[in-house]
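ping. complex inputs:
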Amino acid sequence: MNGISMIQLAKELGLSVSTVSKALGDSHEISASTKKRVLELAKKYKYKPNPFASNLRKKKGKQIAVIIPDIVNNFFALAVDGIESVTMSKHYDTFIYLTHENLEREKAVLEHLESGLISGLIISVSTGREGYAHFQEFYEATKLPLVFFDRVPDLLQFPKVITNNYESSFDATVRLIKAGSKRPVLITTTEPMFTSMERRRGYQDALEKHGIVLTDEMIIHCSDDMDSNYTILRKIFSQKKRPDGIFASIEKYAITSYQVCKDLKLSIPKDVKVIGMTNLRTAALLNPSLSTLSQPAFDMGKEAAGLLIKMIEKKSYAAANDIIVLPNELTIRDSI
Amino acid sequence: MNGISMIQLAKELGLSVSTVSKALGDSHEISASTKKRVLELAKKYKYKPNPFASNLRKKKGKQIAVIIPDIVNNFFALAVDGIESVTMSKHYDTFIYLTHENLEREKAVLEHLESGLISGLIISVSTGREGYAHFQEFYEATKLPLVFFDRVPDLLQFPKVITNNYESSFDATVRLIKAGSKRPVLITTTEPMFTSMERRRGYQDALEKHGIVLTDEMIIHCSDDMDSNYTILRKIFSQKKRPDGIFASIEKYAITSYQVCKDLKLSIPKDVKVIGMTNLRTAALLNPSLSTLSQPAFDMGKEAAGLLIKMIEKKSYAAANDIIVLPNELTIRDSI
DNA sequence: GTTTTTTCCTATAACGTTTTCGTAAAAGCC
DNA sequence: GGCTTTTACGAAAACGTTATAGGAAAAAAC
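pong. complex structure:
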């Protein structure tokens, strides 16, 4: 705003604007001596190219956006940290948009971004499998590269960064069973997301392999509303024939599970064994320490951002169905 | 990018570009009927103004930046949530930059933003009191509004959103003493930040008021490195004459304190009473549940963003020394 | 019926870059 | 020395807006 422009640089140097522009861009058309003169004056005046002018002319910029459901969640916070570590080093600017699991908000953000403000997009979707059209539309309208991570639209052909949800959920469930749980339940979302489906498959197959019959009540659906989740879980665990194991497939469900057990005076792991899918730093400090299946959140963000920037810069044409799979990590503590 | 431009709209409508621009801007110079025609066609083609062109011409845009030390920290995550809730509703875009407590990185971001990419800035500083010059320089160079929150540069005249650190730290310390701690220590940062100084003052005055003599060892300095913090604390609590109370003035220090006590088999609250300054959602689920002094993080973000946007839109010229003080909340649980 | 005002629109010049094209001068070639 | 090629720069257009100034037609005022 207050800064100096190329025009003023050119004037002071007795050069044309185009020469200055090329010099700053290190073009081969400009002699070494002129480049030096230009660079020096630019430095002296702390010249910074106006990004709007530059983006307008080049029809693209070094800005990307991240759309996630929630930042107050260690997983997404870590993912953003990973993303930012890459964008920072590649000199990109990162917009952040939070959908709070709200499909309308997600749509609104996407529509807003059709203006061309950004050159690429990283998303973790906020809803179930029915709501994917807006991503496709965004892509058709803008042809911008977009990368999904964790919560990905399985039905669409886009680059994705995910984890081995099926295998690791299978393993986690097996550990619950081996620890003595006869009837472990799965706590999952109402929204049919890809990640949840995969985790559920892993859970189911583990039960089946160990000869445990899956009944409807064993899959507990929770929402984004902590209070109603508490009510649901409390009711279930107040029953006489209550579950003796929990695989909480979402961070906040693990917390609520603990709360319910605490309030109902159910002993973990004696009465109920718990494994939570979470990246909580305090997992080891909970009472008792929580066994976790944690996601490589930071690395997922890093991979996603790396992939996106590669696509933007067309250094490598990432295949539309490029899928990076990272492993989850199972940490057994005192809760099973 | 792929979208339609004003020029094409104008052509199809048989109008001039300026007319279309004014119609879209709801100018009084344009008749209602023309406005209607323009709006309709714009809607039909999903016209979105090119933000670069618009920003370039207007010399400002609807983008702001948030610079914070760390997103993997409930406090800052909540603050960003609060900020985003405002920017979203006011149709601003929010850049995010993480400094990881690194002064050089903070300076680099600020310098980068001097390009004029944004119209305003929200910051929580990453360092001590000696490193404030770059903020002043940024302001001189850009004259952009900036708002600080929580970790504010007390020596500079800028709008700030803070909490009653002194009073609430005083209260927290008093609670520790009343709970029976004869020699409560303060765990604080090595960096002399404003917030820490205030908390320390509160701690000191509480001791003094209760006739407890403050010695140097009672103020424990920790850094951003979890491992070295662990070592420091473990050493102190292994001593024979170890402290019997902790006021952890930073979230991560509370966690490390718990870890150390657990590993040293010190009972909380019998051997050591703890109050942590934190926004951890899991505080109540820790072993034992942690008494916390928590900050109104979300609201701080909201206030900061509200203030910033007001300044940007000049609806009210926020005074340079506008300071909003929100109260911290003390929640006593089983750790004291 | 003339003048003044209002209404509604257009032409044009910005905003600060990048890029394409053109062209002198210098260098290379025989 | 005449020719081509290369080097190093400049002029001008373009990117898609917004703001300023101006002007024709319609309405209002006398």
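Chain A is about 45% helix and 15% strand.
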